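input
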Amino acid sequence: MFFSDEINLNNPREVQEIKEFLGKFDVVWDNPDKTYVIRDKGKIISTGSVSGNILKYFFSEEEYKGQGTMTIIYNSLLNYLVEKNIGSYFVFTTPSNKKIFESLGLNEVHSTDKVTLFEGGFYSYNEWIDKVKSYIGPKKGRRGAIIVNCNPMTLGHKYLMEKALDEVDELLIFVVEEDKSVFPFKDRFGILQKELSSYDRIKLLEGGPYIISQATFPTYFIKKKDEMLETYTNLDGSIFADKIAKDLEIDIRFFGSEPTDLVTLAYNKSMDRILKSRGIDVKILERKSLDDTIISASSVRKLIKEDRLEEAFKYLPSSTIEYLKSDRGREVIEKIKEL
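output
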């Protein structure tokens, strides 16, 4: 009978041991929150890890497959999530492990040729999409979508939204929900709510757990950046095209142009290919400039960090400026200066 052991992340020998094991599968270690292994005669034969609510790193030596080691690892990780009061989670794994996780009662969200996404706990794509459908109501003509982070919302974001709205009868704006940005999600969403309150053809939506982000996508099994981006984009694009856009009857998705960031440019091109292959129109909107400078949230944060707040204000809508002048906003300003 096999038993799982927790890797002591403060023990260099154990960390090196798991790195070497994962290296057999061309996996790059990224310091997850918790890792469990199963050993046979002192050697690691199976492993799995968790970062936040993302379960990943599920690998076993070939000769031990089918002996229940993956189930043991999964149950250990599940107990850890319960202890942390994490009731909903995702499992990213390779398609070869699909049957194992299906047998454990997990629901497949989507698969590509390289990665499969499962959901567990209280997550349910069907329940999430039904809530979105109920909120946006029946389709009223051409329906478009745009996904934004708005860290923070700038005049550039507002310009892109207004341009997109000119192209459709109704516009769905999904705000990336995970809190990986210096401006908290609730604050970002609140700024947008206030700024867009007069636009009755816009529906502002929480991105939810199914708008996949590079911040949570576990790229542990991809070493090359171009392969990482391709794998991420294929999953992100196919989930949006095959599930979200289909279920919400979205006709077109908008992106902002990207003249400098090569990764974002490559992402936009890949998404263009994926969405168009599913019959969804794509339009790249030229970003707004002011004084020959493209307005971006990163440049605004840079100005704030350099204590040039008044200069930053000229790139921001009134709702963002009002927020930055509030107590909450001043806290964020201090955080930016400390970065």
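quick obs: The chain has a mean pLDDT of 92.
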